[in-house]
């Protein structure tokens, strides 16, 4: 996979354990393994969380923007992963900032760069944009662990 720069939804489904309604990455636009990733999340009005957040002014919850960034980061970490029995977990979020709201019809561009990797723990610098505007940024700490049987 190291030579592939774009990843479609079929490959994303093979790499991530997430499924609807929590799968929050639609396509990988750019990938430089162990360095950086740029991915896309199309924000659709029919997503279930918009029914309650908020009925008269639908806004994508900030925690789901962070989850989108974490899933893109997982794809970056898994881009060279060879073990099929691994899961990827949040270990921490630092310096999270939300700068603008994300609403139905937006295309959320998810960017992450590897800051550090040691002993199965990844640290990423991540940010999401809509158009030319940064809507969210955070430092993400994530861990790869084998599935327990």
Overall number of domains: 1
Rounded to the nearest angstrom, the radius of gyration is: 15 Å
Helix content: 10-25%
Strand content of the residues, in percent? 35-45%
Number of helices: 2
Order of strands in the sheet with the most strands?
1-2-4-5-6-3
- The helix-and-strand class reads alpha+beta
CATH topology, anyone?
Answer: Thiol Ester Dehydrase, Chain A
CATH superfamily grouping: Hotdog Thioesterase
Order of helices and strands: HEEHEEEE
CATH architecture: Roll
Terminal CA distance reads 28 Å
Give a count of the beta strands, DSSP E runs of length 2 or more.
6
**pLDDT under 50 segments (min length 5)?**
none
Oligomeric status: single chain
Largest sheet: 6 strands, antiparallel
Indicate the overall shape. globular
The average pLDDT score comes to: 92
At the first level of CATH, what is the class? Alpha Beta
Protein model, in words:
With 149 residues, the protein is α+β, with helices and mostly antiparallel strands. It has helices spanning 9-15, 62-78, and strands spanning 27-32, 36-42, 86-98, 107-118, 121-130, 133-146. A six-stranded antiparallel sheet has the order 1-2-4-5-6-3, with helices on one face. Strand 1 and strand 2 form a beta hairpin. The longest helix is centred in the middle third of the chain and has 17 residues, at 62-78. The mean pLDDT is 92.
Topology:
Elements: H1 9-15, E1 27-32, E2 36-42, H2 62-78, E3 86-98, E4 107-118, E5 121-130, E6 133-146
Antiparallel strand pairs: 1-2, 2-4, 3-6, 4-5, 5-6
